[in-house]
Design brief:
This protein is an alpha+beta fold and 338 residues long. The protein has helices spanning 13-27, 31-44, 49-61, 65-77, 86-97, 101-111, 229-241, 249-252, 258-261, 311-324; strands at 2-3, 6-7, 133-139, 146-154, 157-160, 175-178, 185-188, 201-213, 219-226, 245-248, 253-257, 264-266, 279-283, 302-308, 329-336. A 5-stranded mixed β-barrel has the order 3-4-5-6-8. A 4-stranded antiparallel beta sheet has the order 10-14-9-15. A hairpin with a 6-residue loop joins strand 3 (133-139) and strand 4.
Length: 338
């Protein structure tokens, strides 16, 4: 096969050695050294799409999106098949990071997805408005990882709908850029989440790459006294009606070891978008059998809650919640944590 006037051959031994060594360095976090080797490999075999795919992958790890886009485009120019190549997916992620919407549309379409708005009246320069349903994203995947639920805006972005724990450094309503290959799944058998009788709905868990759009809404932690679950639910409804969020972390957060977090785990009844679908905080060791379930059993009136609301609103929201049923509700120790 001739590509750009030359006969295509198998990659040389030097190319394979440089590439294998580069990925060993990537595993050790030595991106600069890996970059030198992958650049050398691309110089040795510039006709090989994999040379540029590997460079694009490295630049994605480094969050160097301009370089990732350039290398990705060189890779797809050398592809032999029209659709389904991961090279196009990497181009789509880089284009999304750069808000290069015409290229993002082209990439997803070339990968084989049906992209809304391609050639439509909105214009290819408009942001994607895809809404692919519920999914989960692992925040801080290389640190104190936490899996939260969100709404997929397109193949590379998720809007966070849980209130993350402060250790993640993320807030409710933020949009994160995520990788394309899931690492784990969550299942539910709730009526709203069953695609066919007897089969649970399965939601992928994607790893966050970086924050794409921050939220100006701070996260607060507060201890509440709620006589019943209905009292707790009333606070969450009140926050939602105000356009913000409250979440009973005592019920919604469960502790998982990393291995379990990255496997297929059942969740509570829900549709992957509900507040009480548990989100997971991962730890290196196995937390034991009690760590694999959200808090349950007998109702405890004292609850630790996360609230996402502006400083000017949060105290009034809590006071209004108490005023509706003062004998059954109270709060204390409000603190801004993120």
């Amino acid at each position: 096969m001739r590509i750009f006037g030359r006969v295509r051959q198998r990659p040389s031994t030097d190319w394979r050695l440089a590439t294998n060594r580069a990925f060993s360095l990537i595993d050790d976090g030595r991106y600069e050294d890996a970059g030198e080797l992958l650049t050398r490999a691309a110089d040795l075999e510039p006709w090989l799409a994999e040379s540029w795919f590997n460079l694009a992958l490295l630049h994605k790890f480094r969050h160097d999106w301009e370089a990732a886009r350039a290398a990705g485009l060189r890779a797809v120019a050398l592809l032999e098949k029209d659709a389904g190549a991961p090279d196009w997916w990497n181009v789509g992620i880089a284009a999304t990071a750069l808000q290069d919407w015409p290229l993002a549309r082209r990439a997803w379409q070339a990968y084989g997805l049906r992209v809304p708005g391609v050639g439509g009246p909105a214009g290819s320069g408009e942001p994607l408005d895809w809404h692919l349903g519920g999914a989960a994203v692992r925040l801080s995947p290389d640190g104190e990882a936490e899996v939260v639920w969100g709404r997929r805006l397109d193949p590379a972005r998720i809007e966070v709908l849980n209130i993350p724990l402060p250790s993640s450094g993320r807030r409710w309503g933020e949009v994160v850029l995520h990788d394309g290959v899931p690492r784990g799944e969550r299942t539910t058998t709730a009526p709203g989440g069953v695609p066919a009788a007897g089969r649970p709905a399965v939601y992928p868990v994607f790893d966050e790459i970086e924050l794409w759009a921050p939220s100006a809404v701070p996260t607060w932690v507060v201890l509440i006294e709620a006589a019943t679950e209905s009292d707790r639910d009333a606070l969450e409804r009140l926050a939602a009606d105000a356009g913000y969020a409250a979440e009973d972390w005592s019920s919604s957060v469960r502790l998982l070891c990393r291995a379990c977090s990255e496997s297929r785990m059942p969740t509570e009844e829900g549709d992957g978008l509900a507040v009480h679908d548990p989100h997971d905080h991962s730890v290196p060791g196995h937390p034991g059998p009690l760590g694999h379930t959200a808090a349950g059993g007998l109702w405890s009136p004292e609850r630790e809650c996360g609230i996402a609301a502006p400083r000017s609103l949060v105290r009034g929201l809590l006071d209004g919640w108490v005023a509706d049923s003062p004998d059954a509700r109270d709060w204390r120790d409000l603190e801004e944590v993120c």
